[in-house]
Amino acid sequence: MSRRARVTFLAVAAALSVAACARVKPYQREHLARRAMVSDEQPGEARFQQHARGSREGADGGTGEAGGGCGCN
Amino acid sequence: MRLQLILIAATLASAGPARADGELSVRGAYYKERSTRVEQPMMDARFDVGEQGELRAHMLVDSISSASVAAGAAGTPFDEKRYEGGASYLHTLDIFRFGGGARASSEPDYKSAIASLRGEVALAQRNTILGLNLAGGRDTLSNEGAQSDIVDPIEGRLWTALGSLSVSQVLTPVLVAQGTYDLVYLSGFQENPYRSVSAGGTLEPERVPATRLRHAVQGGLRTFLPMTRTTLAGSYRFYVDDWGVIGNTPEVRVIQEIVPDLDAHLRYRLHHQTAADFYETTYPTADPAVEPYLTDDAKLSELTTQTIGLKLDVLASLVGIHGQLGQARAEAMFEYIIQSTYFGNAVAAQIAVTFPFRY
Lengths: 73, 359
Fold this sequence. Notes:
The complex is a heterodimer of chains A (73) and B (359).
Chain A (H helix, E strand, L loop, with lengths): L2 H19 L13 H4 L4 H12 L19
Chain B lengths: L1 H13 L7 E12 L2 E14 L3 E14 L11 E16 L2 E12 L2 E14 L4 E15 L12 E18 L2 E14 L7 E4 L2 E4 L5 E15 L4 E12 L4 E14 L2 E12 L8 E2 L19 E13 L13 E11 L6 E12 L2
Parallel strand pairs in B: 10-16
Antiparallel strand pairs in B: 1-2, 1-19, 2-3, 3-4, 4-5, 5-6, 6-7, 7-8, 8-9, 9-12, 10-11, 12-13, 13-14, 14-15, 15-17, 17-18, 18-19
């Protein structure tokens, strides 16, 4: 197994371990339900920022949304 | 009894947005740099559909004024409007959430349409949420009717495919981790038809590869500090594509509750990227055998961007308005963007009001 594959495997295993251990109960979610903890951006705000960055930076992405959609390149 | 009260409060809090049957948001966004100004009014709406469905829709107008069609370069001033509309639907079925959406955009010389499918599964008592997003888009370009000195017809098509995996993991009652991996494949016309590049002593039309494969990985942590009523969020994004662009983007956000129903957001974002392998400001020759690609696009140069932002977010209940209208929200945001490219520094601002409604 290559070094890169080992690192990837360990990272995935660590992530799954963390996921398996975490069991926050519904009644413990008061703070998690705060709007700032869910997302501090409205869709329109995020969309405009992504649009502006996409037309000024050549390395956009990572938001889970398809960018582009305009001829501002 | 105390446990019951906490349970009720947590249930109400977690169901916050569902107390209303919908939300309507009206927003105005503004962006200004040395040679380009963008004004964008927009509307976003969210509707509950039955007990398990959620419909979202948006529409906007982009009003762009720039010193030239190839924004950022010296040339003929132009004003242009872009219209965009989109809608999406998500349906919840037990631990699954799935749906899709579509978005279309139109400006005088560019049309775009994107369709997407999304699926989510909530695991481990909803502590883990895995998501998959697939999208496909088709853009068409034509300079017919465009405000340009170029009279020769230019037409092109661009196909976009996106696959995105996301995970959100609750780690403690005040700590959430989140990650996203995006894979984007572009195929087709990716040049700016109005951009000319200095090559071999003449100005040549830009030419770039017909395909581009982009990877972006983003991870972040978000925590709430009950003692100070502060939310801290940090994220890091790594980007790489087959044009040779490598990007690193860390970002931190502090959201401070000033008083209940009034939050102040402070943000700092740093973006640095390397240049595309074929980027040059001037080329010794335009011979395609020697220089297959020609671009002086600043987006493909090595660049650094720093963004400092401040946002205020207030609920109407702060000024004594009760009931459903008390959940109406106003936002004001300002950003100063330091750009190392010839675009120069920029300012961006947004104001928005959001109303909950029943129907």
